[in-house]
Structures are given as structure tokens and as C-alpha cells.
Amino acid sequence: MTGSYLLRVGENWVMRSSKRLALAALAGTMLLLAGCASLPENIISQPEVKLRDVQVMGLGFNNQTFLLSFDIHNPNPFTLPINHLSYGLRLDGERFASGRTPSDISVPASGDAQFALTIELDLLSTAPQLLSIVRDSTRGEVPYQLEGQLGVDIPFTPPIPYRTLGTIRLNSAAR
């Protein structure tokens, strides 16, 4: 009887130890995954995205076409493969354009890259703001605010936000 009692106590001890070991392993794994998930955020420095140029490509009765040109500076010691980007652009305080687009830009380590987007705007919804912006741009530079996110093709890396304030002169290719 004593032998079976010891056996039962020994089995319980073994079961309790196994459960403790499994729980400790699970907790360790969770901590490791939580640390890894936030790792890229802490390692990747925020790239600088600037609006380089806004060109009026076409003015039609129903819509206007603009070419937005951007510069990206990568301060990181590794290439940033950008697979999509979102953007919101305000010119002279007025919402001008926003969107999300796929991309295949690779910004070299500690280097620069350029990209351009063609956008079409509806004349009826944007006419008052556009007229004001275009009229003001003939007198000088227009202040802009650019913000969005860069989606990078690096595992476990969330989109990287960017925000830039500056001034730009509107250029017309249709003149």
C-alpha cells in the first residue's frame, strides 16, 4: 500500500512539474514573440519623404491631372524595400490628394530614391481649392503638409509613418 501511495504522489509531482515546465516554456515563448514583434519598430529609423514637385499635366472640363514627385531618404544601414505607400497631401492647408498605391521602390542603405504619382482630381469637388492654390502659387511657394505610411517588405515590420512640412512651387507642364 505504501508503494502505491508513493507512486501516486510521484505521478502527481511529475504531472505538476510537467505543467509548470510547459507553462514556463509558453510564457517564455510569448515574451520572445512580443519582443521580436516590436524589434523592427525599434531598429528601423523613420525615412524622410519630401514632396519635390507638383506638375499640372492637364486641365480638362471634368478633371485635372497632376504629377506628384517625391524624394525618400533612408537613414538606415540597410535597404528599405517599399511594397506600398499611403499618402495624404495638403496644399496651403487644403486637402489636395490622398490615396494608397502599390510600389516596388528599393531605397538604398543611407541613400535616396525618387518616385512619382499621377493623380486625377474631379473639377466639381475641388475647383474652389484648386483655383485658390494655383492663383497663390503664381506669387511664390505654397506650403504643404505630407503624411502617410510606407509599407516595407521586411518580416514582422508594421508600416512606417512619415510626416513632412515644407513649401513647393507648382509647375505647369500644360502651359
List keywords for this structure.
175 residues; alpha+beta; Immunoglobulin-like; 2 domains; 4-stranded mixed beta sheet; 4-stranded antiparallel beta sheet; 8 strands; 33% helix; 47% strand
Description:
This protein is an alpha+beta fold. The protein folds into two domains: 1-43; 45-172, Immunoglobulin-like, CATH 2.60.40.1820. 33% of the residues lie in helices and 47% in strands. The strands form two sheets. It has a four-stranded mixed β-sheet. The chain has a four-stranded antiparallel β-sheet with strand order 4-3-6-7. β6 and β7 form a beta hairpin. It is elongated.
**CATH C-level of the largest domain:** Mainly Beta
Q: Give the domain tally.
A: 2
Looking at the overall shape, the CATH architecture of the largest domain is: Sandwich
Order of helices and strands: HEEEEEHEEE
Radius of gyration, rounded?
28 Å
| Spatial strand arrangement across the major sheet | 5-2-1-8
Fold topology:
Blueprint: H1 2-43, E1 48-59, E2 63-73, E3 80-91, E4 94-107, E5 112-122, H2 123-137, E6 142-152, E7 160-168, E8 170-172
Parallel strand pairs: 1-8
Antiparallel strand pairs: 1-2, 2-5, 3-4, 3-6, 6-7
Compact summary:
The chain is of the alpha+beta class. The chain has 2 helices and 8 strands, in the order αβββββαβββ.
